[in-house]
Automatic annotation (TrEMBL):
<dbReference type="Pfam" id="PF12399">
    <property type="entry name" value="BCA_ABC_TP_C"/>
</dbReference>
<dbReference type="InterPro" id="IPR032823">
    <property type="entry name" value="BCA_ABC_TP_C"/>
</dbReference>
<dbReference type="Pfam" id="PF00005">
    <property type="entry name" value="ABC_tran"/>
</dbReference>
<dbReference type="GO" id="GO:0042941">
    <property type="term" value="P:D-alanine transmembrane transport"/>
</dbReference>
<protein>
    <submittedName>
        <fullName>ATP-binding cassette domain-containing protein</fullName>
    </submittedName>
</protein>
<keyword id="KW-0547">Nucleotide-binding</keyword>
<keyword id="KW-0813">Transport</keyword>
<dbReference type="GO" id="GO:0015808">
    <property type="term" value="P:L-alanine transport"/>
</dbReference>
<dbReference type="GO" id="GO:0005304">
    <property type="term" value="F:L-valine transmembrane transporter activity"/>
</dbReference>
<feature type="domain" description="ABC transporter">
    <location>
        <begin position="4"/>
        <end position="252"/>
    </location>
</feature>
<dbReference type="GO" id="GO:0016887">
    <property type="term" value="F:ATP hydrolysis activity"/>
</dbReference>
<keyword id="KW-0067">ATP-binding</keyword>
<dbReference type="GO" id="GO:0015192">
    <property type="term" value="F:L-phenylalanine transmembrane transporter activity"/>
</dbReference>
<dbReference type="GO" id="GO:0015188">
    <property type="term" value="F:L-isoleucine transmembrane transporter activity"/>
</dbReference>
<dbReference type="InterPro" id="IPR051120">
    <property type="entry name" value="ABC_AA/LPS_Transport"/>
</dbReference>
<dbReference type="InterPro" id="IPR027417">
    <property type="entry name" value="P-loop_NTPase"/>
</dbReference>
<dbReference type="GO" id="GO:1903805">
    <property type="term" value="P:L-valine import across plasma membrane"/>
</dbReference>
Length: 252
């Protein structure tokens, strides 16, 4: 059974069919890419997968459980985390606290324990600090744990966003243009980090990306969208050699 099973997914905004009859099966541990021209419906699919939009048609199952109709926080609890095209960090909080906010959804002690600072609170806080530092280390951000998020260079802010997504302990991590605005060196480093995250945490990753080098370099399978519908699916090699993809996406 696939970790993510999407069948006949569709949504209309007034007269616009933004996503139409999209099917997607992603296996556990797979690194999967979602590509297509501007306005093809990629971010809308992320919004459907995370409960921001409710589909007009179709089903979305994670680990066999249908999540259509669930709220974004219930879907996060079910194991889907995401990052956004535009960085959405808590800029005035430290790098460490940004990750800790995401760990709070796994908090095991009752709220009252934190208000009156019972012993359980200190134990949980210590565990949370350790866990957050461990995640920051994977992203080579542990040395900047005390920095304000806004003081990190752009490429590191993008990495922190991924670290924060990872801290919710997802089964499926959705990355919306993780390399947007990065220079080639930062992009190459990010590719390595994404691969490492997948291998280290054995999670499944679906990413939207315009950088073809990144997509074809790390994704095992790709789905190409055009005008909200599936244009092609397969390995990067199959997709890149597909004449329809070349015409629609690469404009050749
Ligand atoms: N809330 C909304 N209301 C109306 N139309 C919307 C809404 N969200 C998305 N759309 C439309 O749906 C289509 C798909 O948009 P979407 O943002 O998913 O494309 P995309 O493939 O992510 O594009 P890009 O690569 O530019 O980010 C576009 O025509 C967009 O204008």
């Amino acid at each position: 059974m696939a970790l993510l099973e999407v069948k006949n997914l569709g949504i209309s905004f007034g007269g616009l069919r933004a996503v139409d009859n999209v099917n997607l099966n992603i296996d556990k541990g797979q690194l999967y890419g979602l590509i297509g021209p501007n306005g093809a419906g990629k971010t809308t699919i992320f919004n459907l997968l995370t409960g921001v939009y409710r589909p007009t048609d179709g089903t979305i199952k994670i680990d066999g459980v249908n999540i259509v109709g669930k709220s974004p926080s219930e879907i996060c609890q079910a194991g889907i985390a995401r990052t956004f095209q535009n960085i959405r960090l808590f800029k005035k909080m430290s790098v460490l606290d940004n990750v800790k906010t995401a760990l709070h959804n796994q908090m095991k002690y009752p709220l009252v324990t934190s208000f009156i600072r019972l012993p359980g609170y200190f134990k949980a806080e210590k565990e949370m600090n350790e866990k957050a530092m461990e995640i920051l280390k994977v992203f080579d951000l542990d040395g900047q744990a005390d920095y304000l998020a806004s003081n990190l260079p752009y490429g590191k802010q993008r990495k922190l966003e991924i670290a924060r997504g990872l801290a919710t302990n997802p089964k499926l991590l959705l990355l919306d243009e993780p390399a947007a605005g990065m220079n080639p060196n930062e992009t190459a480093e990010l590719m390595e980090t994404i691969r490492l995250v997948r291998d280290h945490y054995q999670i499944t990753i679906l990413l939207i990306e315009h950088d073809m080098k990144l997509v074809t370099g790390i994704c095992e399978k790709l789905l190409v969208l055009n005008f909200g519908t599936e244009l092609a699916a397969g390995t990067p090699e199959e997709v890149l050699n597909n004449p329809e993809v070349i015409t629609a996406y690469l404009g050749e």
